[in-house]
Design a protein that fits this description.
Strand order of the largest sheet: 2-7-3-10-11
Order of helices and strands: HEEEEEEEEEEE
Distance between the termini: 52 Å
Number of strands: 11
CATH topology: Immunoglobulin-like
Shape: globular
CATH superfamily: Immunoglobulins
Strand content: over 45%
CATH architecture: Sandwich
Number of domains: 1
Number of helices: 1
Largest sheet: 5 strands, mixed
CATH class: Mainly Beta
Radius of gyration: 17 Å
Structural class: mainly beta
C-alpha cells in the first residue's frame, strides 16, 4: 500500500477548508431571523440605497460561531451560515464591519474587517462574508445579482 506524500498531507487541511465553503446566492440564502437583527434605523431618503449581506454556506459542520456585521460601528445583525440580510440606508458614507463571535456574542478575534463605502441613491450593493483559509474571515463587495 502506498503511503501519502508529505505534500498531500500538508495540502489536505487547506483543500478540506476550501472545499467546505459554498458561495450561496442571495435568492438561496435564508433571511437572518429578526431576533438577530439589531439595526432598526429607517431611511429618511425617498430613494435609499440597498445593501445586502450574505454569509457563505458550508458543506460540512463548522465551529459554532456567528458573524456579526456592524454599520458605522453599531452592531447590526448576527449571521449563521447561509443567511442574508438586506437593509435600506440613506445615501452617504458608511463603514461596514465584520467580526467573528461565539453564539453568545463573545468576540473570537481582536480585529474587525472594515469596508468603507459611499452609497448612492437608488443603488443596490451586495457584500459576501467568506472564509479565506490563509487570512480568516473577509467581508467582500460582490457584484449585484441580476434578477
Amino acid at each position: 500500500m502506498k503511503t501519502p506524500t508529505r505534500t498531500s498531507l500538508l495540502l489536505s487541511p487547506v483543500l478540506l477548508m476550501v472545499g467546505c465553503a459554498t458561495e450561496i446566492t442571495v435568492r438561496d440564502a435564508l433571511p437572518v431571523p429578526q431576533e438577530r437583527v439589531f439595526f432598526k434605523v429607517l431611511p429618511k431618503s425617498s430613494d435609499p440605497a440597498r445593501a445586502t449581506f450574505v454569509r457563505d454556506a458550508w458543506l460540512l459542520p463548522t465551529a459554532p460561531i456567528n458573524i456579526r456585521i456592524s454599520v458605522n460601528g453599531e452592531f447590526a445583525a448576527a449571521f449563521a451560515a447561509g443567511e442574508r440580510w438586506e437593509v435600506a440606508l440613506d445615501p452617504g458614507d458608511y463603514l461596514f464591519g465584520l467580526r467573528v463571535t461565539t453564539l453568545e456574542g463573545e468576540p473570537m478575534t481582536f480585529h474587525e474587517r472594515i469596508i468603507d463605502q459611499t452609497l448612492l441613491p437608488g443603488t443596490r450593493y451586495q457584500y459576501r462574508m467568506l472564509l479565506d483559509p490563509a487570512i480568516g474571515w473577509l467581508l467582500q463587495r460582490a457584484p449585484v445579482e441580476q434578477k
